[in-house]
Amino acid sequence: KSSLKQIPKTRPSGDTAPKGFSLSSEDADVRHDQTDPLEVIDSLRSGCHVVWGARLSGKTILIREIIRRRASEHLDTWILRLPHKDSSHDAHLAAVAAKGSANLIFVNHLEGLEETLEEFISDRLVLVEADLSLLPKLADTNHISWLAGTKHYLIDEDQKQTELVSQLLLKFKADTPETVSSSIISDFDL
Fold first, then answer.
1. Which residue numbers in the chain have pLDDT < 50?
2. How far from the centroid of its chain's Cα atoms is residue 164's Cα?
3. Do the Cβ atoms of 54 and 84 come closer than 8 Å?
4. For residue 100, which of 118, 77, 126, 130 has the smallest C-alpha distance?
5. How buried is 119 (Cβ within 10 angstroms: 0-12 exposed, 13-18 middle, 19+ buried)?
6. Are 23 and 65 in the same domain?
7. In the chain, what is the straight-line distance between the N-terminal and C-terminal CA atoms, in Å?
8. Are 156 and 181 in contact (CB under 8 A)?
9. What's the rounded Cα separation, in Å, for the pair 185 and 190?
10. DSSP per residue, the chain
11. How many domains does the chain have?
12. What pLDDT is attached to residue 16?
C-alpha cells in the first residue's frame, strides 16, 4: 500500500487535464466523428487499384497501407509501377513488395499495359503506382480503357490539382478517385 501512494497520479485532481489533453466533450465528439478515410480498402481480395500522386507524395506509403489492410485470404498481390519521367526503378517500392509478399513489375512502356492488366485483374489484387506526370501521356494514347474498370486513389496535396485530375479521369470514363489527404499519408509513415 505504501508504494502505491508513492506513484504519481496520472491525472491531476480537479477539472484540469495533463498538458496537451482536453476534457471537453466537444473534443471527444470531434475524435469520434473522424472516420478512417481508407476504410474502403479494408479486406481487399482482388481487383485493380491505382494510386495517383505527384513525385514524393507518398504513393508507396499508401500502397504499403493497402497491403497491410488487405484481406488475410487474398489470393495473389501484384504491384505495377508505371513509367516515371525521373527514374525507372524504385527501391522503396521493392522493399514494400518484399515485406508484403507481393510481386513487383516495373512497366517501362504503356503499350501492352491494357492486355497485361486484363490478364491480372481477374483473380488477383493489383496495385498500380502511377505518377501524375503520366496523365498527359495517357491522354495521348488509345490504351486507356483499363482506367474505367479500376478503383482510383489520389493523394490530395493541392485542391485545384485534385479537381483537375478528377475531371481528366472522368474524361477517361474512370470513376472519381477516392482522395486521401497528404496529412493522412504522413501519419501512416510513422
1. 1-2, 4-5, 7-34
2. 19
3. no
4. 77
5. exposed
6. no
7. 40
8. yes
9. 9
10. -HHHHHSPPSS-SSS---TT----HHHHHHHHHPPPTTGGGTT--SEEEEEEE-TTSSHHHHHHHHHHHS-TT---EEEEE---SS-S--HHHHHHHHHTT-EEEE---STTHHHHHHHHHTTSEEEEEEEGGGHHHHHTSS--GGGGGSEEEEEES-HHHHHHHHHHHHHTTPPPPEEEEHHHHHHHT-
11. 2
12. 44
Determine contact, residues 138/172, Cβ cutoff 8 Å: yes
Supply the pTM of this predicted model.
Answer: 0.73
pLDDT at res. 190: 56
- Pair 8, 49 in one domain: no
> 88-104: per-residue pLDDT in tens?
678 889 999 999 889 99
156 and 80 together in one domain? yes
* Torsion 151-156-159-164 (CA) sign: negative
Question: Looking at residue 37, what is its pLDDT?
Answer: 57
Residue 129: per-residue pLDDT:
93
Residue 152 · residue 180 · CB < 8 Å: no
Domain region containing 8 = 2-33
If asked whether residues 114 and 79 sit together in one domain, one would say yes
Whole-angstrom Cα distance, residue 62 to residue 127?
10
Which amino acid is located at 148 in the chain?
A
Q: State the cell numbers at 182.
A: 497528404
